[in-house]
Amino acid sequence: MTGSDSLFDDVGTGSRTTPQTPAPSAPLAVRMRPTTLDEVVGQDHLLGERSPLRRLIAGSGGSSVMLYGPPGTGKTTMASLISQATGGSFEALSALSAGVKEVRAVIDAARRRLVQGEQTVLFIDEVHRFSKTQQDALLDAVENRIVLLVAATTENPSFSVVAPLLSRSLVLHLRSLTDGDVRTVLERAVADPRGLDGSVEMTGEALDHLVAVSSGDARRALTALEASADGASDGQITVADVEAAIDRAAVRYDRSGDQHYDVTSAFIKSIRGSDVDAALHYLARMMVAGEDPRFIARRLMIHASEDVGMADPTALQTAVAAGQIVQLVGMPEARLALAQATIHLATAPKSGSVTAALGAATADVSAGKTGAVPAHLRDGHYAGAKKLGNAIGYRFPHDDPDGVLPQQYPPDELVGVDYYTPTDHGFERELVTRVGKLRSIIRGVASRTRRR
């Protein structure tokens, strides 16, 4: 690991070490790393009284652990606390630099220590970057508890870690910190002797801005705080100091206030209006302000059906794919997928026919137009169904060369009612003729059946 991600001072690949108190010159994010469980902020869902993670940190658990979550959520902190709790030897490997040779050397040393009754904790950062061969080299040591593996990854281990290693580990999903969590981390860092020790004050606006741009990442927040403090004058950190430190303009955007709804509304209306440039502006505005990318993805998925619909059926696929990338890859890389989906939807032909069709059908149902299901469409897969007349006379469409044949499908009172009206926009232009032909074939006998 490098930079502010370093787990312990002076730890190289495969180095045996004990956690050390960070030097005063260490980055603020390192100095403020929790040393006890009581200092951990967030992840309450993993730290219940009898939770496996709490037992591990208390030194009473023996399971290997896969810590999965976004950057700055406490994966390295958890590894540090677990290593301290075991009281044994600690080995740190980074998947960015270690190979199979280094992995096997650590395991051999761990075997020798185990003979003497000494446990070895092996921490592997970025484990998803290990090849299959490197991961396989860990299997025997993990299964036989030659090492207690604590691995960290920002990617979903179900996709990036081999199944045998995954099944031998306890997978714990860490969540992005809430705004309240990040605020607590920042306020503690300003006051704590390990941090800024009260040497500076911070305006409320500056604190709000740091929280907003951190996107739930404590390390990012602390790094920005430290840079802001270095540039502060008169012992006070202002929004201007934060802006200068992180080179990011303050965005007037409150995720729980009017600006949240105004910017979101403008984003959707710009896409609906096919103004791709305005849509990208509002997208960037939301992302720079730290909006939850999952919220943006959900809005795109809704819009794909609501305002593009059948004019471009692939728009929904693009929006769903963007949502999956947000979930599987995370930020900041997922920004590109959100931008691609925004461009696709904004430039796609528009149609509100899906919304209108569902609205019309729902209105009829709400008005009580829910007649009996035609007997030939009812379920006939149970004893006595035929005696009730169910499923008798049903015509199987695949028996027809065209796959479509005359038959009544709606209740009697809704025969001939049109809900879906294709527009002549984009792909829907092809459906205008197709839907008309389908209706004429299907209703050819349906109408006469009703008259009978």
Task: Please outline what is shown here.
The chain is of the alpha/beta class and 452 residues long.
Any overview of this molecule?
There is one protein chain. By secondary structure, the chain is an alpha/beta fold. 47% of the residues lie in helices and 8% in strands. It has helices at residues 28-31, 52-57, 75-86, 100-115, 132-136, 139-143, 157-160, 163-167, 179-191, 204-214, 218-231, 239-246, 258-272, 276-288, 293-308, 314-328, 334-347, 353-366, 428-451; strands at 15-17, 64-68, 89-94, 120-125, 148-153, 169-173, 201-202, 236-237. Helix 11 (218-231) crosses helix 12 (239-246), helix 13 packs parallel to helix 15 (293-308) and helix 15 (293-308) runs antiparallel to helix 16. The longest helix is centred in the last third of the chain and has 24 residues, at 428-451. It is extended and about 85 Å long. The N and C termini lie far apart (80 Å).
- Measured by DSSP, the beta-strand proportion falls in 5-15%
What share of residues is helical? 40-55%
Helix count, DSSP H or I runs of 4 or more residues? 19
Mean pLDDT: 83
Secondary-structure map with pairings?
Elements: E1 15-17, H1 28-31, H2 52-57, E2 64-68, H3 75-86, E3 89-94, H4 100-115, E4 120-125, H5 132-136, H6 139-143, E5 148-153, H7 157-160, H8 163-167, E6 169-173, H9 179-191, E7 201-202, H10 204-214, H11 218-231, E8 236-237, H12 239-246, H13 258-272, H14 276-288, H15 293-308, H16 314-328, H17 334-347, H18 353-366, H19 428-451
Parallel strand pairs: 2-5, 2-6, 3-4, 4-5, 7-8
Antiparallel strand pairs: 1-3
